[in-house]
Amino acid sequence: MPTYTFYNNQTGEQFDALMKISEREEYLNSNPHIQQVVTSAALVRGVSTSNKIPSGFNDVLQKVAEKHPTSPLAQKVSRKSSKQIKTESIVKKHLG
Q: Distance of alpha carbon 68 from its chain centroid, rounded?
């Protein structure tokens, strides 16, 4: 429901009210001394989570890396045991 700003001509008071569009029309018709004030729309923009990757996505990346162990992604995100690291270094040494 939108928030509307109204002005009371009798008291000079300006106030906000939260109501449906149909309720606004009914309210203005039953209160001729009150008029709606036109304001700019409240916009939400620039929502940021400081560019942090959700932890669930990291799990997906690790599963992809497991299926493609020689990919650059696997080099970045896969969890390797010390035995796997030693084995890879020996293979690299002998294959050149």
A: 31
Structure tokens belonging to residue 34: 């009150």
Supply angle C-alpha 48, 78, 57, rounded to 5: 30
User: Which residue type occupies 58?
Assistant: N
Could you tell me if residue 43 is inside a domain?
Answer: no
Residue 82 has pLDDT above 90, yes or no: no
Q: Which residue has 């939260």 as its token pair?
A: 18
pTM over 0.85: no
Check whether residue 60 and residue 88 sit in a common domain: yes
Q: Which domain holds residue 17?
A: 3-37
| Domains in the chain, number | 2
Helices (H), 1-96: 21-30, 55-67, 72-77, 82-95
pLDDT single digits (tens) 3-54: 899 999 999 999 999 999 999 999 999 999 999 998 877 676 666 666 777 7
